[in-house]
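Write out the 3D structure for:
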Amino acid sequence: MDKFQTVLAVMEDYAAAHHVPIISREGGRLLHSLAAAAKPTSVLEVGTAIGYSTLLLTAALAPGGQITTIEQNLERIELARTYLTQAGASDQVTILAGDAGLILPEVSGSFDFVFIDAAKGQYLDYLHKIMDKLSPDAVIVADNVLFRGWVLDYGSIVPRRYRTIIKRLRAYLDFVTNDGHFKTTLYHIGDGIAVSHYQGETNI
């Protein structure tokens, strides 16, 4: 097993032992395949956690490509840096510490691949804040959009503490499904993954 795969395995074990939410293996394969097809030069990740998906994305970057990733948990940031260094990928990644909702408006540049896996109730807010930073044909991948199956099950009784999250995830899916800026495919993998292809301003 090479260094890259060894570090990924260590991260999976850590996440399982410490209840850190990372993308599922199947979801990770989809994420990597989408990124590999896009060959992005500039990636934005909202929600680094311990850097598992970040590391997967580094393997799909175009030569010289870079990832900007945002995380507010300082302990997880340090772990992510450690793992990325061990995998030899730290030079490809810039980690921004803080609340993504506050950081995103200040992020400069354009991005051709975006991965959203942070506060579930803020997905649509995150997307609105990066719309002007999407390059033509950008790919936006959002994890956990079905939230235990409740998002599409309108007949289910959702516990009160989750109702706002469910309402906001439904709003996110409604937006990326019906707004002309995007063409979206929903994958029933893990807890649901939405893949949206940005159509650009010229197609609106």
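Residues 3-203 form a domain with the Rossmann fold fold (CATH 3.40.50.150).
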